[in-house]
Amino acid sequence: MAINTDKNSYTILFAIGMVIIVGTLLAAIDSSLKEKIKTNKILEKQQNILYAIGINNNEGSSVSFVSTDQAPSLFEEYIVSQIYIQGNKIVEDDEAYLIEVKKEKALAKDPTYDRRLPLFIAQRDSVKYYVAPIRGKGLWDAIWAYIAMDENMMILGAYFDHKAETPGLGANINQRFFMDDFIGEKLLDQNENFKGIKVSKTNLDPRNEIKDDHEVDAIAGSTITGDGVSSMIKSDLRLYIPYFKKLKQN
Predict the structure, then answer these.
(1) Which of 109, 147, 164, 113 lies closest to 232, judged by CA?
(2) Domain extents for the chain?
(3) Is the model's pLDDT at 33 over the cut of 60?
(4) What is the phi/psi pair of residue 89, to 5°?
């Protein structure tokens, strides 16, 4: 029996069928993309952490990460422990890399909430690295970093990035000429008080040979981005001081 395609009922049923089919397909695609995005974010975090401890494919002045194929195995090889600090607790957690710094900062606006502070402990040759993820605000949007330190909170490596800073200016925080300046800088003064690192346009050490002045040279034309980096380092890394004090006592 032939179907009468001129009837209104046919048109309505056809439309409903198409909506169901298209909706199902879109839901499947969305689910698949979400999983892929999640995986890519994890791989990117692993690459960033590895970069901060010097595991990268840099040549000359370029910035080059290990491949996404290599990242999981290298992460497992070099990261000997993952923890998070929450109040007075230090919790070992093999999935600390899944903690979202942005979300934790938002939750910490509630004074009753103790923010979770991820820390990745790496061993490379005979050197131990403590890598902290931090996040702040640049000129236009979010900026973030992975800072590798030794037990004295001296910086051993760093990776900075941004969401929407100005190309050729603030966006250059993810270039080696800026990031490498932080290596060897001390976050604590001689009396072990936290000082942080200031990105300074009046810094009188353009080659960054002085490592105890708590300053690095600013990028020309990117004052607000540089101030955001300074503020991010000061506000986020000072939260790790109790952990490093306990570390020295053990």
Answers:
(1) 147
(2) 47-249
(3) no
(4) -95, 140
